[in-house]
């Protein structure tokens, strides 16, 4: 084997190993009530930035449709994550709130914790490990 083919095999092994060891999170959103607007999912790894959408580790959006929607986040490191989901019914790009506190659009959190006051990271947090995808089901509340 020459040097070029050896380097090529080494690079292929590194790429394969990185892809094989990356974690994946599948977020299943249940209970979308109508097809207006979009369903948005934000994935967090840092409790200090939890619920600050612009500081999420990753975000995804899909046009809303009634029932269930699935979002997949790939290439993640193993660790502890939490998810915030909301149905941006009016398409203004943010979760609307009454008096700046109470959501007026559908929303949900990983682990579906009971919430009194601003949600915290830990009740919504779940562990992700390398290998098989981690699935979390989020029930929207309207």
Task: Describe the protein in words.
There is one protein chain. The chain is of the alpha+beta class and 142 residues long. The chain has a single domain (23-139), classed as Immunoglobulin-like (Sandwich). It is built from 2 helices and 10 strands; from the N terminus they run H-E-E-E-E-E-E-E-E-H-E-E. A hairpin with a 3-residue loop joins strand 6 (97-98) and strand 7 (102-103). The longest helix is centred in the first third of the chain and has 19 residues, at 3-21. It starts with a helix and ends with a strand.
Main features:
single chain, 142 residues, alpha+beta, Immunoglobulin-like, five-stranded antiparallel beta sheet, three-stranded mixed beta sheet, globular
Helices and strands in order:
Layout (H helix, E strand, L loop, with lengths): L2 H19 L1 E10 L5 E7 L13 E6 L3 E10 L2 E10 L8 E2 L3 E2 L3 E3 L11 H4 L1 E3 L5 E6 L3
Parallel strand pairs: 1-10
Antiparallel strand pairs: 1-4, 2-3, 2-5, 5-8, 5-9, 6-7
Number of strands: 10
CATH architecture: Sandwich
Mean pLDDT, to the nearest integer, reads 89
Approximate strand percentage:
35-45%
Number of helices: 2
The coarse silhouette is globular
- What's the number of domains? 1
Pattern of helices and strands: HEEEEEEEEHEE
CATH topology: Immunoglobulin-like
Task: Please mark out the parts with pLDDT under 50 across 5 or more consecutive residues, or reply none.
Answer: 5-19
Oligomer: single chain
Distance between the termini: 63 Å
């Amino acid at each position: 084997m020459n040097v070029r083919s050896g380097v090529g095999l080494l690079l292929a092994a590194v790429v394969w190993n990185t892809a094989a060891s990356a974690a994946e999170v599948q977020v299943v959103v249940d209970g979308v009530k109508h097809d207006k607007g979009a369903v948005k999912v934000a994935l967090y790894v840092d409790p200090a930035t939890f619920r600050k959408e612009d500081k999420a580790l990753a975000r995804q959006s899909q046009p809303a449709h009634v029932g269930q929607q699935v979002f997949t986040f790939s290439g993640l490191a193993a660790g502890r994550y939490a998810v915030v989901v909301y149905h941006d019914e009016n398409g203004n790009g943010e979760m609307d709130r009454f008096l700046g506190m109470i959501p007026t659009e559908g929303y949900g959190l990983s682990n579906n914790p009971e919430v009194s006051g601003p949600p915290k990271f830990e009740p919504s947090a779940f562990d992700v490990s390398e290998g098989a995808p981690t699935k979390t089901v989020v029930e929207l509340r309207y």
